[in-house]
Amino acid sequence: MKIKPYLIFVLIIWVHLIRAEDHWTLKQCLQAAYQANHLLKAADFQKKQSIMQLKASQAQRLPVVSLSSGYTRVGRLSTIEFSTGPGEPPRKLTFGTPNRMNLALQLQMPLFTWWRIDHAIQISQLSLQLNDLEKEKQKIAVTAQVLQAYYGALLAKKMLNLTEQNVQRTQKYLKITQKRFAAGQLPKFQLLRAQVQMQNDQSRLRTVQADYQKSLAYLAKVTGVEGKPIEPQGELQFTPLPYDEEEYLTRALTNRQELKQLDQQKIILQTQQKIVAAGNKPNLALVSNFSVLNGFNPMEPEKFYTNYNIGLQLSWPIFDSFNSHYQAKAVYYNNLALKEQKKEIEANIKLQIRQALISLEQAAQKIASQKANIELAQQALDLAQKQYDQGVVSSLDLIEAQKTLLQTEMGYWQAVFSHILNKIELAKAMADFSIFEDQL
């Protein structure tokens, strides 16, 4: 008998844990989405690609060793005929062999390239940083998507709760109507009206239930856990946000990945300009060859000999048909284009911040108005219910009071959701979701 309470306690804890896994916090949803998002995974692969490109750029500093081999069949060889003595037939001396083969090992190593290799390595490093910024930008987009899905599911859940409460009110109203009809206090018309209202409210409830399931399916999709039922944990709540446009704009201009990417691209262009400027500058390389070949000794043409050489190779392009000049001009105009793009992005950021703050202010005002309307609508419903019970007002007045309360309550929570959506837009504009720290 002592074990039984313990088993019951363990069972309760186990059931609680299972249910807790089905109800996810916002933080859990974000972590799952970061791990499952395909574009974030693609960004990781692109980063590895950039790392390989960086290593390839760095490898240009190292020597290149190549192996080559060849076979040549010579149809006619050089010969010399000479007399060996009186009465003796002339002798013939052949130079070389008709089957010539060689095997060569070549080493080439750049010694001085006017810093072209260093600049190429710098560009690869900057490209790697661009990949990191692209991943951050994608993470911002995923965060916003999860927040919208999470709070959208909470709104759908709140709408479901309100609709269920309204159905309960209608059930209560129907029971009272049935009693009064049975007592002969109401005509059948009023009973039919109550029954129709009950059917309408139940139909609305089924629609809202379906909407809630859709919102859960979308939340599962954006978190990457499709097929596993999850529900958002928590409730919608209104959290006012201070109106500080200058502060938000400063944070946006500091954090936005697009602006950081343009700055990186500007540095890449400056580095490319240095490479272009070095296009007509000399290069110095170390060159060495080691070879094995036959036909080297005319007296022993079939014998293989080894040979080697080592030296310095200087190359200096004297005229490149103005290629360097045109490339430099192209980089110059590209740099001007980046400046204009930056101005446009900054202007759009300012507009996004301002619009988000205006929308936040509008949503906050609507929330305050709807909150006051809820109190009035609740008082009107209580009064209508009391007067209906006393037979002072008709059932139509009671139904209208119920509808008004439901619509007002839904309007309030939709305004709260709108306020949250505008906060998400503001956070996206700033590339900073610290305003949701209390939920994370």
Q: What is the CATH class of the largest domain?
A: Mainly Alpha
Give me the number of helical elements: 9
List how many beta strands DSSP finds. 8
Helix vs. strand class? alpha+beta
CATH homology group of the largest domain:
Outer membrane efflux proteins (OEP)
Question: Can you describe this structure in just a few lines?
Answer:
66% of the residues lie in helices and 14% in strands. It is of the alpha+beta class and 440 residues long.
Structure characterization notes:
- The protein has 440 residues and is of the alpha+beta class.
- The chain has 2 domains: 24-62 and 113-281 and 323-436, Up-down Bundle (Outer membrane efflux proteins (OEP)); 64-77 and 90-112 and 283-315.
- Helix content is 66%, strand content 14%.
- It has 9 helices and 8 strands.
- It has helices at 3-22, 26-36, 38-58, 116-182, 188-223, 245-255, 257-277, 323-389, 395-430, and strands at 23-24, 64-73, 78-82, 91-95, 99-112, 231-232, 283-294, 304-315.
- The strands form 3 sheets. A 4-stranded antiparallel β-sheet has the order 2-5-7-8, with no helix packed on it. A two-stranded parallel sheet has the order 1-6.
- Helix 2 packs across helix 4, helix 4 (116-182) packs antiparallel against helix 7 and helix 6 packs across helix 8 (323-389).
- It is elongated and about 160 Å long.
- Residues 1-21 have low confidence and may be disordered.
